[in-house]
């Protein structure tokens, strides 16, 4: 992935996140106390997942999907269950404004964010596969954005 494409995806990601926050609310569902509590829980959980993933990456953390040279592949902590937990956390947190926004535009914005983060993950995985010989095996037993809870059973069938 070219650096310009990587930064374009980062820009699109942050633009969509900002849009989800500033879009006017709709009326697809009630926006009462339950919506506020649910949205708050989603935002907090998403931030915790993304934060834990960022801490686990340590020196491998980078703002773009281009992996740093000379760092080990991280497969522990939240990376044991999900290959891109920062993206998972971002999607989880971004769903909070969707719940509060209660509009079709919010839903479309979240889906666009999902597409952007999936593109980032796909490009990143190509580069990680080139740099880390064990990446294909890790990817086969670990979910991209959603955990594969039964990977031990899958491994035993190999």
UniProtKB/TrEMBL annotation:
Keywords: Membrane, Transmembrane, Transmembrane helix. The chain crosses the membrane at residues 6-26, 33-55, 86-117. It holds the Pfam family PEMT. One of its GO terms (cellular component) is endomembrane system. It is a multi-pass membrane protein. Coiled coil: none annotated. It is found in: Endomembrane system. This is Unannotated protein. It comes from freshwater metagenome.
